[in-house]
């Protein structure tokens, strides 16, 4: 609309001016007198059922799984407030992670979040819940998800100081994930060694070398050196545990 | 005489909505929403009633806002195109009365749409909470009708008016969350840009209605109705905002050369 399409301001009746500015003034005053919004944390809701999620996905389960992962990941950062992970309901978090993995079993993101974010809280009970979740999901597809159990094993060993749990996870990788690389499949040997179970470690290491599964010369050399060190340690300390 | 002219324009606005079968259109949308809500209730394993109510209420609220707003925009555009506005103003009718008549007509349409939208809520929720929800929806629709009239009178074109209306509605629904995010201390220090953004957001909060407080589906769930004083405050705020928008529309309309 050009300027010539407009009539002068004097064409506007005084009543319209009055009502407009009075209403604007009251609106501004009203809103200015309203208390400022206060941030309050809302609890994580229960995830929808897998069937509902599949309907919502509209044939794009991987896309919905990605969006849900981002939603869950950002849940600790609600408008105006940041909630520590330890205040989240971990049972709900696990329900969400499970639902996302059911939508898109190939995604690694929920397991990454479980192992790297949620398992890092300074609360052993919550850490164990996450590690159990990672272990349960590993059992569903060991060859795809071994790396997260390997990480869980390290968390169990170094943060929870639970070598038995770490050993269980490492053994499951060696037993159930043939696609895992050598270092992951050898983890249980080194955990045994750290636990003072040198005899068992020696047997496993010797067995591994004899099985012919390892082809890399450097790796064979390293493991041979390790075996020798174990044998020397055994010879020099006759009172060592077995 | 003036009052009769305003009522006549309002009556024709209502008649137009009937002739273009607006009620049937909204009833159809309502039926689809009820069907979808029933489907959602069927697939839910737990809290199926809560999910059904919240889904239906949220869907119907959005549908009501958009059906009404688009009707207001297209009705005025049609009048512009058919030169009906020039014809009406050629008789002894004040511009302000035309705006008041149109507003009154659109408010009646808003009231009927709110009534239709509330009927299924009466079946699913307690009557008192459904009534509160319906009154709040009517207030929200009054504001949106006045806003749509203001937009189309100002922009005169459908696209910019619809875009403004949509942007306004989305912003008014999300402004409280945006204010909370803006109020949180930034991770990169208290920069000038953050300060500036906070001022802009707080400025918007002064001039926009807080739609996130209106027509909440949470009221219908678990008999979680808000106090009636809240409804009264929302009604007063809606009245004030519609007066403001009505005055702004008249201001703009009086300046136009026809």
Describe this structure in words.
The complex is a heterodimer of chains A (242) and B (258). Helix content of chain A is 65%, strand content 2%. By secondary structure, chain A is mainly α. Chain A is built from 12 helices and 2 strands. In chain A, strand 1 (77-78) and strand 2 form a beta hairpin. By secondary structure, chain B is mainly α. Chain B has helices at residues 2-19, 22-43, 48-81, 84-90, 95-124, 127-155, 158-183, 192-207, 228-255. The interface between A and B is large, with 37 and 34 residues.
SSE layout:
The complex is a heterodimer of chains A (242) and B (258).
Chain A: H1 14-33, H2 50-57, H3 61-73, E1 77-78, E2 81-82, H4 90-103, H5 109-117, H6 124-140, H7 142-158, H8 163-176, H9 182-185, H10 187-194, H11 198-211, H12 217-236
Antiparallel strand pairs in A: 1-2
Helix pairs in contact in A: 2-3, 3-4, 4-6, 5-7, 6-7, 7-8, 8-10, 10-11, 11-12
Chain B: H1 2-19, H2 22-43, H3 48-81, H4 84-90, H5 95-124, H6 127-155, H7 158-183, H8 192-207, H9 228-255
Helix pairs in contact in B: 1-5, 2-3, 2-5, 3-5, 3-6, 3-7, 5-6, 5-9, 6-7, 6-9, 7-8
Termini gap of chain A: 93 Å
Percent range for β-strand residues of chain A: under 5%
The SS-based structural class of chain B is: mainly alpha
Poorly predicted spans of chain A: 238-242
């Amino acid at each position: 609309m050009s300027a010539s399409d407009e009539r002068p301001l004097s064409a506007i009746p005084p009543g319209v001016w009055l009502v407009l500015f009075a209403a604007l003034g009251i609106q501004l005053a009203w809103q200015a007198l309203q208390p400022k919004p206060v941030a309050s944390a809302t609890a994580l809701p229960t995830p929808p059922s897998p069937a509902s999620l599949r309907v919502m996905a509209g044939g794009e389960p991987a896309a919905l799984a990605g969006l849900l992962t981002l939603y869950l990941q950002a849940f600790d950062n609600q408008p105006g407030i940041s909630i520590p992970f330890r205040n989240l309901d971990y049972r709900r978090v696990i329900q969400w992670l499970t639902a996302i993995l059911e939508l898109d079993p190939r995604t690694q993101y929920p397991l990454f979040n479980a192992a790297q974010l949620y398992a890092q809280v300074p609360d052993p009970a919550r850490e164990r819940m996450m590690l159990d979740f990672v272990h349960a999901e590993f059992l569903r597809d060991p060859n795809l998800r071994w790396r997260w159990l390997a990480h869980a094993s390290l968390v169990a060993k170094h943060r929870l100081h639970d070598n038995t749990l770490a050993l269980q996870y490492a053994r499951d990788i060696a037993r159930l994930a043939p696609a895992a690389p050598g270092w992951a499949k050898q983890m249980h040997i080194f955990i045994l060694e750290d636990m003072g179970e040198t005899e068992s470690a020696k047997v496993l290491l010797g067995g591994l070398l004899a099985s012919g599964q390892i082809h890399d010369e450097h790796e064979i050399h390293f493991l041979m050196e390790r075996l020798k060190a174990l044998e020397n340690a055994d010879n020099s300390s006759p009172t060592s545990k077995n | 005489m003036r009052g009769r002219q305003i009522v006549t324009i309002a009556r024709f606005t209502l008649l137009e909505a009937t002739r273009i079968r607006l009620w049937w259109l909204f009833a159809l949308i309502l039926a689809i929403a009820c069907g979808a809500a029933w489907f959602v209730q069927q697939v839910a394993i737990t809290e199926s009633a809560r999910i059904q109510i919240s889904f239906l209420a949220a869907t119907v609220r959005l549908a009501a806002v958009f059906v009404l707003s688009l009707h207001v925009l297209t009705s005025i555009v049609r009048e512009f195109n058919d030169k009906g506005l020039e014809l009406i103003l050629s008789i002894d009718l004040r511009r302000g009365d035309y705006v008041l008549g149109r507003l009154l007509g659109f408010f009646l349409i808003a009231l009927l749409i709110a009534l239709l939208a509330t009927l299924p809520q009466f079946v699913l929720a307690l009557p008192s909470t459904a009534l509160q929800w319906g009154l709040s929806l009517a207030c929200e629709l009054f504001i949106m009708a006045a806003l749509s009239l203001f937009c189309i009178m100002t922009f005169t074109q459908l696209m910019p008016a619809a875009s403004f209306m949509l942007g306004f509605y989305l912003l008014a629904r999300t402004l409280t969350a945006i204010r909370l995010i803006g109020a949180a201390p930034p991770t990169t220090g208290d920069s000038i840009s953050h300060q500036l953004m906070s001022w802009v957001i707080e400025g918007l909060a002064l001039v926009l209605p807080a739609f996130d407080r209106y027509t909440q589906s949470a009221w219908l769930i678990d008999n979680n109705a808000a106090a009636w004083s809240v409804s009264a405050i929302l009604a007063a705020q809606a009245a004030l905002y519609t007066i403001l928008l009505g005055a702004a529309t008249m201001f703009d309309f009086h300046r136009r050369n026809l």
